[in-house]
Amino acid sequence: EAKLTGVPKDLPDTLHELHLDNNLIQAIEQEDLRRYGKLYRLGLGNNKIRMIENGSLPVMSSLRELHLDNNKLSKVPPGLSDLKFLQVIYLHSNNITQIGVNDFCPTGFGVKRAYYHGISLFNNPVAYWEVQPATFRCVTDRLAIQFGNYKK
Predict the structure, then answer these.
(1) 89 φ, ψ to 5°?
(2) Nearby residues of 140 by Cβ (< 8 Å), 6 or more positions away
(3) Strand, helix or coil at 37?
(4) Residue 83 in contact with residue 57, Cβ under 8 Å?
(5) Tell me: the pLDDT tens digits for 27-68?
């Protein structure tokens, strides 16, 4: 709750967790996360994020948990399927209207090293009945996927 408008660029590059929740961040660009490649957990919930630049997330190759809930995203961020160890992604309470079949899981067999334990998508204006079942082929348990009611 520091009213940050961007990701700090002067923190140690050895961090394993970075909590930037409850700020005023509007976008994530490639250079914003480049120095934080050792992160296991990144918290960006409750910001104003509308855009995550393609290539921004895969630089954090060890990432296991990503919080992007309560933002203004209109689509699933690009690059999630490249994160081999990502297990939990919070995307609830955004403006996501569609989900692509390859948004979460890589296309090659054996590429993902850890399966998802949680994908939170509730409170988004996505028509869940239009999402292809193969979209969640790298999820361990169907209960790990949380869709839910969307209220305008």
Answers:
(1) -135, 125
(2) 115, 116, 117
(3) coil
(4) yes
(5) 999 999 999 999 999 999 999 999 999 999 999 999 999 999
